[in-house]
Amino acid sequence: MITIRPETTADVPARERLLDRAFGKARRRKTSERLRAGRLPSQSLAFTAADENGRFIGTLRLWDVDAGTAGHCLLLGPLAVDCKRQRQGVGAALMHHAIAEAKRLGHRAIILVGDAPYYARFGFAHGPVAELQLPGPVDRARFLGLELVPHALAGAAGLVTTCGRRTASERQAA
Ligand SMILES: CC(C)(COP(=O)(O)OP(=O)(O)OC[C@H]1O[C@@H](n2cnc3c(N)ncnc32)[C@H](O)[C@@H]1OP(=O)(O)O)[C@@H](O)C(=O)NCCC(=O)NCCS
Fold first, then answer.
1. Which of 19, 39, 71, 89 is the residue whose CA sits 20 to 30 A from 82?
2. Mean pLDDT across the chain, nearest whole number?
3. Domain 3-173 sits in which CATH superfamily?
4. Of 123, 162, 163, 115, nearest to 143 (Cα)?
């Protein structure tokens, strides 16, 4: 049985190896990365999927952003599952757990850039973010939102910017 647990620092090397395999080195040039670079994930919203032996098999994190006129919300991603464990519900388990935790912690909405056919099953759609802009190029069909509180993204317009906690190295450089 797989388990979803909070990410620890011991997970970081395996997480980075998995993300390099899943998205390639160019992942660091993605527009979403501009909202994550130098920031920490939202408090208590970084998750690891572990296998029956406790080994790392998947990752999902959420980040604090300001979504234009909608105010604070979460940016989801990256989501990745070890290729040997795909199509066994690990991605869905990470998604359901992350959405439930975000709701429990009082967050109002989640946005992401990803494959609509995959994320639609969790309720993500393009409509709620249609008038929001990201700080870089993006395929608009892949820009999706989910309201955790009804109407949290109603009329949302403007630029999405980061408001996450800075990493220690970013704090020193500031
Ligand atoms: C996408 C990903 C996280 C799904 O993880 P997973 O553990 O295999 O997902 P689940 O087992 O919960 O769901 C599998 C289902 O999702 C479908 N699926 C996987 N990736 C998909 C995609 N990009 N678009 C549409 N459907 C997708 C599978 O075909 C499968 O469908 P089925 O249930 O009808 O067989 C995993 O394939 C992965 O790590 N991919 C590489 C990184 C990536 O693309 N991340 C998403 C960012 S867009």
1. 39
2. 97
3. Gcn5-related N-acetyltransferase (GNAT) (3.40.630.30)
4. 115
